[in-house]
Specification:
alpha+beta; nine-stranded antiparallel beta sheet; 3 helices; globular
Amino acid sequence: MSRLIICVLLIVCSGCAKDHSKPSANLSFVSVKRERTLLYDIRYQSDVDVLNLFDKGQGKGMIAGFLTCALGDDHDFSIEKAMQFSAVGLIESDGEPLNGGKFSYLTSAFLVETSSSRSSERHLSTTELNNLLSNKSQIPCKLFVTAFGYKTYYSNAMNIPTADLLREINKPE
């Protein structure tokens, strides 16, 4: 019964969410580097200051900002659906804005398999990652930001060269 009430409340509230009317950010890949056994630092740039989309300067109203990359064949980036194989992590600023209106970001991402109900996640092994990525030349990523009272903000897709990611996955520890 409580799940039904929560679902109804979410549906009602989602109808009230305002359109953010912000342009979709264009992301450009810079680098990927394995920092620890399970964590990969993905650096990229954006033509939109995505951490200050809502209530500029303090991040007020912003709930969270994530970068998600599709490691498998599922490229449905909607927040409502769990992607089975993905790289996912929080968006962080990676320094001051650059010349030409570019903003630098860093995401420390985990490469995981997520259950369809989102009730569990597990880290993918090196062998599983090699099998998933071996026949791909690139993997698509999107950034999304959620904020109180607004519809989810999505960037345009950015592609990470699979060779760069595989180099880091297979790098000796």
